[in-house]
Amino acid sequence: NAGTEADVYISVYGERGDTGSRQLLRSQKSKKFLKGQTDIFAVEAVHLGHLYKIVIGHNGLGSGNGWFLDKVVIKDPITDLDYTFLCHRWLDQGQDDGSIVRELTVTDASTFPGRQELELKREETWAAEKWKFKKGNTLQFYNRLTRGFICLSPDSRVDALGDKTNKYGKVFFMWMYA
């Protein structure tokens, strides 16, 4: 359910002005904004100079209107420059912070080579994995090198002797490669 059937709008901002709100109508794909799909749109506008931000969102209408947006890349045909705007968030009233509009600033690849994308991936991974570290849970890591378990207990004790049983109930196994 990461795609949307809602109407999507974008405003592009540069050093010489902005495009105003434009609906993204005709993708090169037959059905636009599907999960995992890259859509390509042509947007006509006066040359805005160097771009610094976009505002992108949808009208919230239609069934399954929530949308997970990874990033937007704008290719300037005059300067042959690519501008990347990382999002990696939901535009959904029922997900994330509930916003269906995002303001995104340009990612300067020369200043941050992959750093922002790595940070977004780290945040996404933590959001998916943090449930394992809730109070009362015990983690057990299996080390292939020693063929033993390392147990992290809720009371901050570490058992590296390889005991595969514990008194805490919930046990999660994670594989650790050395």
TrEMBL record:
PROSITE patterns, per the entry: PLAT (PS50095)
Domain of life: Eukaryota
Pfam families assigned to the protein according to its UniProt record, in alphabetical order: PLAT
Domain (PLAT) ranges: 1-105
Transmembrane segments: none
PANTHER family: OXYGEN-REGULATED PROTEIN 1 (PTHR45901:SF7), PROTEIN CBG12474 (PTHR45901)
UniProt protein name: LOXH1 protein
Biological source species: Chunga burmeisteri (Black-legged seriema)
